Amino acid sequence: MRLEYFEMIDSVRLLDRAAGRIEALAQVPLQSPVFEGHFPGHPLVPGVLLTETMAQASGYLVLAHLDFARMPFLTGVDKARFRSFVGPGADLVVTASLEHDGSGYAVTKAAISHAGKALCDAELRFRTMPFPDGLDAPMRARARSIGLLPAVDQLVGQPVGQP
């Protein structure tokens, strides 16, 4: 995770396009400017950044589902629940499943866990639109760096690693 750059997903561990499911990994950094204010002496990942982490995993799932033909933009968060605190150094498993895709919208259910313990979950809505000028290439580059693009071409449900 590079919190200050909003790069929340470190790698994609599993992409099952047929089932509409992704599993990604994110390691919370030991140090970040975010922790200086949230909270001094007791660093915690803000809930909004955990939500963003679920949204990014979900967004990568939607991108893969749509073969990078359209860009998903987060439009809504429903039923978000935060069950435990997340501190520096936590190894997070982020999962998302596609619940709906159609009419220019996609809906996912996403969750984050650590060491098998549920930390948070939410339902997320996205508007899928043509890529804004200049965004397609950087999104493909980022997807490639986390191992998503090779996964699109692999067998459904097979583990994926970094390219």
Automatic annotation (TrEMBL):
<protein>
    <submittedName>
        <fullName>Beta-hydroxyacyl-ACP dehydratase</fullName>
    </submittedName>
</protein>
<keyword id="KW-0456">Lyase</keyword>
<dbReference type="InterPro" id="IPR029069">
    <property type="entry name" value="HotDog_dom_sf"/>
</dbReference>
<dbReference type="GO" id="GO:0016829">
    <property type="term" value="F:lyase activity"/>
</dbReference>
<dbReference type="InterPro" id="IPR013114">
    <property type="entry name" value="FabA_FabZ"/>
</dbReference>
<dbReference type="Pfam" id="PF07977">
    <property type="entry name" value="FabA"/>
</dbReference>
